[in-house]
Design brief:
Helix content is about 30%, strand content about 15%.
């Protein structure tokens, strides 16, 4: 399920494609011919034409090309015709995961002091590490490398607030860990609250914050979490309790999904009832979700100034509870998976298309220009990257007996860190 880019131009992409093809064909033929020339070494060393990226799609004859380009770089230029990242033209959901052992994660669960034990898979005993070395390669453009210093400069003098559930908290922790190592100890701090946690980079006068609101709208399970979904009651027409924490923020990143998927119906109420929460009605989850998201959208449209604040919405983070989805009927949820499922367009039962459609429809009707971070399709492939049994429950890391019961105790909802949320943040920063 893809989102149409808000201001994307299909005609522009088509134009680009037609422009590049003849150039690439000419360059490819020339290059292949040279490979079979006995004097290729002499030509490459003496002819300056081959020391530049002669097939660059931006300007094939640019004098500013790197004259020290190697043979590998020339080959890559011919084969990789993707253009530089443009959020209005790049469809981030169209791509593939590419294994790259040379990747060096910017942090580990031992080096970053801000990670919860819930997502610290290596520290909790996960034996394999391959899940950390996959890069998301977008089909039609290149995703910029994550540079902590550049990111902090972009956030200089600003407040960035992630709002949502534990998946959103994972994205917040990921971003904090990706930048904190270059900040001197005396220039960073963290203040943890029950609902609101703030990491500060003092030198940059910037903060990266997280606010807990799993439904975005008010509920009786916001502060004291109610474990039984059947006892949760939502006030689907109000964000008043939470929104006071969202005002005055420069960059807001919202999400809400997995808490809505705990049953077919959601106890919901709205308006003013003499009997308060007892005035609820049982609504089908997509219907309740739509009302709640409209409530959120109305708050954004009414209260946020687009000239001062950026607003993002991260689409649903998929779960992988049914191994038959990825043609492994004998699997134990996501437990034995060690690499992504590569079938193009794979969409498992852990991603609700009705919910995805609601997000698309509601946001498309908003006055405020919300940027959608469509991470669902790329994350669907990552059956390998969840915390599995290398996590905690009830504040305690799983013991050996619990880890042995992989069918019942594998967490196929949350992601190990470093991991998939790092790529979400790479995409998010590229939008800033």
């Amino acid at each position: 399920m893809s989102f149409p880019p808000s201001t994307a131009s299909g005609a522009m992409k088509a134009f680009r494609g037609k422009l590049h093809f003849p150039i690439i064909m000419v360059c490819a033929i020339a290059f292949i011919s040279l490979l079979y020339t006995e004097r290729i070494g002499i030509i490459l060393s003496s002819n300056p034409f081959f020391k530049v990226k002669s097939c660059s799609k931006t300007n094939a004859t640019s004098k500013n090309q790197n004259r020290n380009a190697t043979l590998d770089k020339l080959r890559d230029t011919i084969l990789d015709d993707r253009f530089e990242f443009d959020p209005e033209e790049c469809s981030i959901e169209n791509g593939k995961w590419v294994f790259n052992r040379s990747i060096k994660p910017l942090y580990s669960d031992r080096s970053c002091p801000y990670l919860d034990r819930q997502v610290s898979c290596v520290k909790n005993g996960r034996p394999d590490s391959g899940y950390r070395y996959w890069q998301w390669q977008i089909q039609d453009c290149t995703l910029p490398r994550f540079d902590p210093e550049v990111v902090l400069k972009k956030l200089s003098g600003k407040r960035l607030l992630f709002v949502g559930d534990s998946l959103q908290r994972g994205q917040w922790q990921s971003l904090v860990c990706m930048v904190e190592s270059i900040i001197p100890e005396d220039q960073k701090s963290i203040r943890r609250g029950h609902s609101h946690t703030v990491f500060r980079a003092k030198e940059y006068n910037a903060s990266i914050e997280f606010y807990w609101a799993p439904f975005l709208v008010d509920s009786n399970s916001d502060e004291q979490i109610i474990g039984n979904p059947k006892e949760r009651i939502l006030k689907v027409d109000s964000v008043a309790k939470h929104a006071k924490y969202w005002t005055g923020v420069d960059i807001l990143v919202f999400n809400t999904y997995v808490w809505w998927m705990s049953g077919y119906t959601i106890k919901s109420y709205w308006g003013s009832f003499p009997n308060g929460e007892e005035g609820y009605e049982e609504l089908e989850a997509p219907a309740a979700y739509r009302i709640a998201l409209k409530t959120w959208a109305n708050w954004v449209d009414t209260n946020v100034n687009p000239n001062k604040t950026r607003v993002f919405f991260t689409t649903m983070s998929p779960t992988h509870m049914r191994s038959a989805d990825w043609e492994n009927p004998d699997g134990m949820r996501c437990f034995n998976e060690t690499k992504p499922y590569m079938k193009k367009g794979f969409w498992g039962t852990g991603s609700d298309k009705k919910i995805m459609r609601v997000v698309s429809e509601v946001i498309s009707k908003m006055k405020f220009p919300v940027s959608v971070l469509n991470v669902t399709q790329m994350s669907n492939y990552r059956v390998d990257a969840h915390t599995k049994v290398y996590t905690e429950t009830g504040g305690q890391v799983l013991n050996d007996e619990q880890k042995a019961d992989v069918l019942h105790n594998s967490d196929c909802i949350h992601w190990c860190l470093p991991g998939v949320p790092d790529t979400w943040n790479q995409i998010f920063v590229a939008h800033l």
